[in-house]
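Why do we bother with holo predictions? Because pocket geometry can differ from the apo form. Keep that in mind while you read this record for heme C.
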Amino acid sequence: MKYARILGLVLVVLTASLSFAARAPKSAVFNSAHDFKTQYNGASYTLCNFCHVAHKFGSAPTGPSYLLWNHTLSSVANYGVYTSDSMVNQPVDLGTSSNANLITSNLCLSCHDGTVAINSWYEAQSNASYQPIAQGTDFMPSDTTVRDLTKQHPINFVYPDATSAANIGMRVAGSTSSIDGAGNVPLFNGTMQCDTCHDPHAGPSSGAHLFFRTFPSTPEQTTTGSFCVYCHL
Ligand code: HEC
Ligand code: HEC
Ligand code: HEC
Ligand code: HEC
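The structure, written out:
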């Protein structure tokens, strides 16, 4: 009886927590597939340093400044793009975009295209001289390599404007920085990127699977059980 009441309460809380979206806390990266501090036994390193670094020391710091990025970027120039007659705005090849260093999908592909080692960084980590971690030895397993973007969900294209979105039965974006207008399903300068669907910090502790974002729940999703219909109405 008591347990049934507690279970009931838990279910209410769970249902409530599914009915609104929230960003995963950054700490959820701990113990996820993106927790390289644990994977490389980097006791004196911070969890975040493997991707971001607070300072790049020296007179000519290397690597992009954007998001204080610290993982060596890939030099692949051509990933290809998804194309079709029905796309409103065609994608642009990530490698050849003039602002390639500012495109968040390139941050993902710095590991996920399989050409740069996962443990390859611009700035040595703090205390590295006391506890060096080998650089440039581990590559992405081939079954998680994302290389040919002609056969993946399109990214790096401008999300259709309100009129076009309505015409093709898509959710109208709330702003140029997110589809829901509250930052939970982000756009980057109005474009869709890998991290529109995935949040690289959303590990299992935040309840996420495959680093998926928490999409605001809608009746369509509840009925179909698919997050695709959050955008494709
Ligand atoms: C596996 C690589 C990786 C690790 C580890 C990582 N991040 Fe990130 N972070 C990214 C990427 C990629 C982006 C850009 C995508 C985005 O904006 O969600 C990003 C974006 C951010 C942003 C700006 C966008 C936002 O969501 O607020 C902040 C702040 C941030 N990270 C903080 C952190 C902190 C703090 C940690 C450590 C607890 C951390 N990150 C660990 C990859 C990583
Ligand atoms: C965050 C929003 C969003 C989500 C979630 C999403 N898509 Fe898309 N998708 C888009 C946008 C925007 C386009 C570009 C539509 C256009 O311009 O015609 C697109 C394009 C496509 C296309 C190509 C359409 C064409 O005209 O060639 C297919 C197919 C597709 N999505 C399927 C899916 C599937 C399947 C899922 C779930 C696994 C999914 N999408 C999830 C936003 C989304
Ligand atoms: C510093 C390297 C690095 C960066 C940057 C990075 N990843 Fe990963 N990611 C990995 C590794 C390593 C794995 C584990 C692969 C495996 O074991 O199969 C992984 C796993 C994943 C998985 C599968 C998780 C699972 O539970 O199986 C997804 C999805 C993913 N990453 C998406 C992204 C996206 C999207 C971005 C950018 C927003 C990104 N990653 C940035 C290294 C990285
Ligand atoms: C429209 C939403 C969407 C976008 C955009 C998207 N993904 Fe995914 N991703 C998914 C879905 C759905 C899955 C799980 C089903 C599957 O494997 O197709 C997935 C799975 C993955 C996995 C895990 C594969 C595995 O088998 O473990 C990785 C890694 C990944 N995505 C990386 C990326 C990267 C890198 C990008 C940008 C180039 C990206 N994703 C863009 C929806 C998306």
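The CA atoms of residues 92 and 156 lie 6 Å apart.
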